[in-house]
């Protein structure tokens, strides 16, 4: 379209405004209005104890349902939200809604022990994360130990003040998990210093656990590392009974994945686990 106009001698567009650029801008504009338009909601994926099937927690996963675009995957809009700064507003909304939902479930007769919420690196760069979390906990009435924040290794290793923020979060009683563990490279010495409670074995290692000896070795190593450092270890993306049996055999009794449940609406969680 811009090309056609260009042929007529009108070149108002910047050279970077390719089709992709236009599409991105459109997405950006729509994303910015998504909260006020009520298009953002959360799904919750159960985390279970493998041997008993008991519910030990849920992970909150953000969803964007736009009338024009349909359901947009987080891998598409989280990076965009990070680039535009919208992630701060979105992250706050997610945190608030997650804590509030825990109380709603409780009032309806379902006690979910813990909720895990993903944090973006940009939220750390912002600096005020600790105050925000404390304020949300106070306002919703959720006990701090029932909130677990998930960060990736790269967040920890690449954020200058991460250690300070993480220690502050620990000081107010909030839990911390390292997401997608094994895919980044955290220094083990650094890990030991952090007030982290949980390692989440990345889905990519679980996928071919029974057929790929490298993945098997990595998964076992992470489980052992957790034991040595006295951390709990949870496996992500568990889809088969074989994978669950493997985990149990090697001493990992916490899992999350389609085998147990897909991410669901709060009402579905209530119905199924109450
Ligand atoms: P994550 O935190 O590692 O979340 C786990 C992802 O694996 C989720 O994808 C979940 O739906 C998917 N999953 C769970 N079990 C299985 C399984 O058995 N098989 C397969 N194939 N997939 C499984 P989702 O919801 O698309 O989220 C993708 C990523 O987007 C998340 O990865 C997280 O990094 C990010 N994300 C999601 N919600 C938020 C949020 O509220 N804030 C931030 N900053 N990031 C978020
Ligand atoms: Mg996560
Ligand atoms: Mg993960
Ligand atoms: Mg991930």
UniProtKB/TrEMBL annotation:
Signal sequence, renumbered to the chain = none
Boundaries of each EAL domain copy?
Answer: 24-274
Q: What is this protein called?
A: Sensor domain-containing diguanylate cyclase
Q: Which organism is it from?
A: Massilia eurypsychrophila
* Residues of the whole record sequence present: 765 to 1038 of 1038
């Amino acid at each position: 379209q811009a090309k056609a106009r260009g042929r007529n001698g009108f070149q108002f567009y910047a050279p970077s405004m390719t089709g992709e650029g236009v599409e991105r801008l459109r997405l950006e504009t729509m994303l910015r209005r998504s909260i006020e338009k009520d298009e953002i909601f959360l799904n919750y994926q159960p985390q279970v104890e493998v041997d008993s099937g008991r519910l030990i927690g849920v992970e909150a996963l953000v969803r964007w349902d736009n009338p024009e675009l349909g359901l947009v995957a987080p891998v598409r809009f989280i990076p965009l939200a990070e680039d535009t700064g919208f992630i701060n507003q979105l992250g706050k909304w997610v945190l608030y809604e997650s804590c509030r939902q825990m109380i709603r479930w409780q009032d309806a007769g379902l006690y979910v022990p813990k909720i895990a919420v993903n944090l973006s690196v940009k939220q750390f760069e912002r600096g005020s994360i600790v105050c925000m979390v404390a304020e949300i906990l106070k306002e919703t009435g959720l006990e701090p130990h029932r909130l677990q924040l998930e960060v990736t290794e790269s967040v920890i290793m690449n954020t200058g003040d991460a250690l300070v923020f993480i220690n502050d979060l620990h000081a107010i009683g909030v839990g911390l998990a390292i997401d997608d563990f094994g895919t980044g490279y955290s220094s083990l010495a650094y890990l030991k210093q952090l007030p982290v409670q949980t390692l989440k074995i990345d889905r990519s290692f679980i996928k071919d656990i029974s057929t790929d000896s490298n993945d098997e070795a990595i998964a076992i190593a992470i489980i052992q590392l957790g034991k040595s450092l006295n951390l709990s270890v949870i496996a992500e993306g568990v889809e088969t009974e074989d994978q669950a049996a493997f985990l149990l055999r090697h001493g990992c009794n916490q899992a999350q994945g389609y085998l147990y449940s897909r991410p669901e609406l709060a009402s579905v969680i209530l119905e199924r686990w109450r």
